Amino acid sequence: MRSFIIDCDTAEDDVASIFLLAKNNMKIVGVTVVEGNIDFDQEIINALWALEKANVDAPVFPGSRRPIVKDFTTVEEVHGKYGLGEIHATTSRKPSPKHAAQAIIDASKELEGKLEILAISPLTNLAMAYLLDPSLPKRVKKVWVMGGTAFAHGNITPVAEYNFWVDPDAARIVFKAGFNITMVPWDVVTEYTINDQEWNEILNMKTPLSEIYVKMFSHYRKYDKDVQKLDGHPHPDLITTAVAINQDIVEKSKHEFVIIDNSDSLTRGMTLIDHLDSDKPWSSSPNTEIIYRIKKNILLEMIKKMLS
Length: 308
Ligand code: BDR
Ligand code: CA
Fold this sequence. Notes:
The protein is α/β, with parallel strands linked by helices. The protein has one domain: Inosine-uridine Nucleoside N-ribohydrolase, Chain A (Alpha-Beta Complex), CATH 3.90.245. Helices cover 39% and strands 17% of the residues. It is built from 13 helices and ten strands. Strands 3-2-1-4-5-6-10-7 form an eight-stranded mixed beta sheet, sandwiched between helices. Strands 8-9 form a two-stranded antiparallel ribbon. Strand 1, helix 1 (12-23) and strand 2 (27-33) form a beta-alpha-beta unit. Helix 4 packs across helix 5. The longest helix has 19 residues, at 208-226. It is globular and about 55 Å long. The model has no long low-confidence stretch (mean pLDDT 97). Residues 8-9, 13-14, 120-121, 237 line the site of calcium ion. Beta-D-ribofuranose binds at residues 11, 13-14, 37, 75, 78, 120-121, 146, 155, 161-163, 186, 236-237. InterPro entries: Inosine/uridine_hydrolase_dom, IUNH, Ribo_hydro-like. Keywords: Glycosidase, Hydrolase. One of its GO terms (cellular component) is cytosol. This is Pyrimidine-specific ribonucleoside hydrolase RihA.
């Protein structure tokens, strides 16, 4: 059985990722929570609630409440006040007293060479874990990252994706650290939105999980249509999770050199990809597998199986 830590800023798509891993019999070693989408304490509650709904008994480790250097903003307008659209999650479960960064280090020792990290949020916890223990990348099998852009088409600024923009210093540290990274960019996942027909099919499923899905995603869907000008809602975190679970979903990927702009400028958080594999001084050998295309039919099959 494959073993995962999910590092998330628990809004609706992060929760759906927890559901997808659980439904596919992946072992969830723990959920580490980081600053991002909404109020940090509600993110912890959402993670505990998601595990409860998925019938998974796994610990939740609170991590960093803020980026390493810069200030950031939460985005309740995107995900709803409590991060889950129409749902205000509550739970009697309690988080672990252990810090997320320490939990990542400990799990990497217990599962040396086997641990996979699903990093679907700002990369502060992972950067902190690496700074505490620079030998971490050698013990981690894989880091699946939702973040950044492939073609510099952002969602929080014209050129930056939210997860990298929140903590560009952490993102820069993580991509330089020597982890085995596969990255799913924002401007790739926007090609695979859930259109009106697919949304109606899910509406008609009427299972306990499909009803949660509809309540969680209706706010996000409206935002994506009205503000991001998409024809439906995308699944950044869920697609990253689907890629991690099932590599057959990948239609095109490429190994390239990636570095994140952590300057305080208009390009803060921008993903720089050396598409030319050049020998320029700022470039280096490929450090990331970037996903460029996936198979939508497999994504839909996985979503429907998850909600059934
Ligand atoms: C990413 O930012 C968050 O809003 C989502 O959860 C996703 O991880 C998309 O830019
Ligand atoms: Ca997320």
